[in-house]
Specification:
The protein is of the alpha/beta class. Helices cover about 30% and strands about 25% of the residues. It has 20 helices and 26 strands. Strand 3 and strand 4 form a beta hairpin. Helix 3 packs across helix 4, helix 4 packs parallel to helix 5 and helix 9 crosses helix 10. The longest helix is centred in the first third of the chain and has 25 residues.
Length: about 675
């Protein structure tokens, strides 16, 4: 059989030995062999730092985002090939789509978020400018820049496509190259994924490397600029976390480990309610999708003591309809575990769990299968247990397969305590229409969970379910779950970057960040609205005014808009207002006058005003006050796929005494070239 190749240091590497055989989870046939013998891990890391890192850092966030989107589109065209290979891991077509489409979806999501939420630049500016002096000449700004190392990604066997892509996407968007090491059992699927990526030629060279087989001495060579992300068992995470090089160099280490996730049924969700049915359906789904081999699967199902028998019966009825067998066969709803070794591990864990409970449904040793040999393939029956929640075993032992344990509770306080006994979980869910119960459970359980789903009749049709990590949301959890976080939108990108506080003058900060900072020089001359994006520079400014605000202006605005709030129309009531002491102009009248002052009305490169942000009214404007507005180009963001870009303007409206009466950002779309 074919020996899986590694892709390191710019080329494909085939090990010199015969490798270890990898088997089809359903048939037991050999699929491929795996070995990393001969890989120079120190050289691979150095190649990523020397070649991949600089190539990525030359690109802006938007350019990297566009490449992620292009890669996602390319992989989508090869889904059928990946589905077919995924079946050999024991996955049904539905399981395969969950893995393959989920991973591709992460690429699309980060491609979209990178374009919408990050600048078309190579530096990320975080938070507001911090004033550090009275005169405003000494200020500070936090920035984030990509680390100069390699993101080493060690993945689990259960999601050979989604696993690597959910780590790769935010690292790539941050500008950090990746070295992917999949778990051996299903590495042949990840290997084909990487082949498709490399063959596409979409990514800069060195931005992705792949190791098939053991990591050897890889971790001996990591530096303070490298990162290690691990998904797998808590025991392995602990071992890697304490590796001498990781400890010595304070290497960023992110772990997503096994966790005893729970689902809680509310007391209101009695048999016959929508929520009762949702709980049972979700429980069975989480037990059987990927044959229960999901780090987010429900391992502990807490139900009111009075509903325990009802839930056990309803879940057993649904489980009885689950057909187990060859995932390629029609009608099969649950395939095999990833390997025979994995099945034995599940059976060992089941024996420990049975010390604290009993079987409600299923047989750990026997299962009827369709179109397969039950012993040659890694098949196991779904097993639903019932246990005493005061015993420690259900809160400590995870059977990483189609196994879940029902446990009763008698009060909200008690079930929150039971949920916490898992020692930290990736995901939990609460199924209830009782909002007070939900609030108490969520606030009590949140410190022990990375994500909590509340499921009820209102959100059920659109809910993604208990076990589906979303790229917009953090994936990780405290304690036993590893203490790490992945994804979470831009949070996941920042994990691969260094946050640095930069102190200096406004002019220095403007130069470093590429954004105008209050107090930095302005350039007046040609009206900035007459400049194309190619001509416009940060700091280009116009000062317009003054305009005197009259009583007639205020009266007309009130009548025209219908805003007759007393502070604008009732002199006696306005005088009694401690903030105003008399009639004041509408805030939006001030903004409208400012727009009339700074606008350049003739056709030109400015295409549209598409918003205001951060608007604050600072000083009341009274009859007779004169207004002046200073508009300054604050940030310029070309769109790489359009003939225009975005310009953020700083607007400062002042009165005759120089006091700011309103401050805000104006957002416009501007042509790249003169029309």
């Amino acid at each position: 059989m074919a020996l899986l190749r590694s892709y390191v240091s710019g080329g494909w590497h085939t090990a010199a030995d015969e490798g270890v055989p990898l088997h089809d989870a359903a048939t037991g046939e050999e699929v491929a062999r795996i070995s990393s013998k001969g890989v120079d891990f120190a050289a691979a890391l150095e190649y990523g730092r020397r070649v991949g890192g600089p190539a990525l850092r030359e690109l802006t966030f938007h350019q990297r985002a566009a490449l992620l989107k292009a890669l996602a589109s390319h992989l989508r065209e090869h889904r059928d090939e990946l589905y077919a290979l995924s079946a050999r891991t024991g996955a049904t077509l539905g399981d395969s789509k969950f893995d393959v489409d989920g991973g591709i979806g992460v690429l699309f999501s980060y491609g979209s978020k990178g374009k919408r939420e990050l600048p078309n630049d190579t530096v990320y500016v975080e938070g507001n400018v911090e004033p550090l002096s009275r005169g405003g000449t000494f200020v500070a700004q936090h920035i984030a820049t990509p680390l100069r190392g390699v993101a080493v990604q060690i993945n689990a066997f259960n999601f050979p496509v989604w696993g690597p892509l959910e780590k790769f996407a935010p690292a790539f968007l941050a500008g950090v190259p990746s070295l992917v090491k999949p778990a051996s059992q299903t590495a042949y699927l990840t290997a084909r994924l990487v082949e498709l990526i490399i063959e596409s030629g979409i990514l800069p060279e060195g931005s992705l490397q792949f190791v098939a087989g053991s990591v050897g001495d890889l971790l001996d060579h990591v530096t303070a600029q490298d990162l290690v992300s691990f998904t797998g068992s808590a025991s392995t995470a602990q071992k890697l976390r304490t590796h001498p090089a990781i400890v010595r160099n304070a290497v960023r280490f992110n772990a997503e480990a096994d966790s005893l996730n729970c689902s809680i049924l509310g007391p209101d969700a009695v048999r016959g309610t929508t929520e009762f049915d949702l709980f049972v359906k979700q429980l069975v789904t989480e037990m059987t999708v990927k044959a229960g081999q999901k780090c987010t699967a429900i391992r502990r199902a807490f139900v009111p003591a009075s509903l325990l028998d009802d839930v056990a019966q309803a879940a057993s009825e649904r489980l009885a309809k689950v057909t187990v067998g060859n995932p390629a066969s029609e009608g099969v709803r649950m395939g095999a575990l990833a390997s025979l070794e994995q099945r034995e591990e599940v059976r060992r864990s089941l024996k420990a769990l049975l010390d604290a409970g009993s079987v409600v449904f299923g047989d750990p040793e026997r299962v009827e299968v369709v179109d397969a040999d039950a012993e040659r393939g890694a098949f196991i029956s779904p097993v639903l247990l019932k246990a005493d929640p005061e015993r420690s075993e259900p809160h400590e032992v995870e059977a990483f397969g189609p196994v879940s344990t029902l446990m009763p509770y008698t009060s909200t306080e008690q079930v929150v305590d039971f949920a916490a006994r898992g020692g930290g979980s990736l995901a939990g869910s609460v199924v209830s229409a009782d909002k007070e119960f939900v609030r108490e459970v969520v606030l009590g359980a949140a410190p022990f969970h990375g994500r909590l789903l509340v499921l009820d009749a209102e959100d059920a049709k659109e809910s993604t379910g208990h076990g589906s990590p979303m790229p917009q949301l953090v994936h990780g959890g405290p304690g036993r779950a590893g203490g790490g976080e992945e994804m979470g939108g831009i949070r996941g990108v920042l994990h691969y970057m260094q946050r640095t506080a930069v102190q200096g003058s406004p002019a220095v900060l403007s130069a470093v960040t590429g954004r105008w900072v209050a107090g930095a020089p302005r350039a007046e001359g040609v009206h900035p609205f007459r400049k194309s994006l190619a001509e416009l520079r940060v700091g280009d400014s116009v000062v317009a005014g003054p305009r005197v605000v009259s009583q007639a202006d205020i009266d007309h605005f009130a009548e025209f808009t219908g805003d007759t709030f007393y502070a604008h129309t009732d002199p006696e009531a306005a005088a009694a207002n401690p903030l105003f002491g008399g009639i004041v102009a509408h805030g939006y009248l001030v903004v409208s006058f400012a727009a009339g002052l700074f606008v350049s009305p003739e056709p030109g490169p400015v295409l549209a005003n598409y918003g205001l942000e951060n608007l604050r009214f600072l000083t009341p404007v009274k009859v007779g006050d004169s207004l002046t507005v200073t508009l300054t180009a604050k940030q310029i963001t070309p769109r790489i796929d359009q003939d225009y870009g975005e310009v953020r303007w700083d607007a400062d409206v002042t009165n005759a005494e120089g006091e700011s009466v309103a401050k805000y950002d104006v957002l416009t779309l501007v042509s790249k070239e003169q029309p």
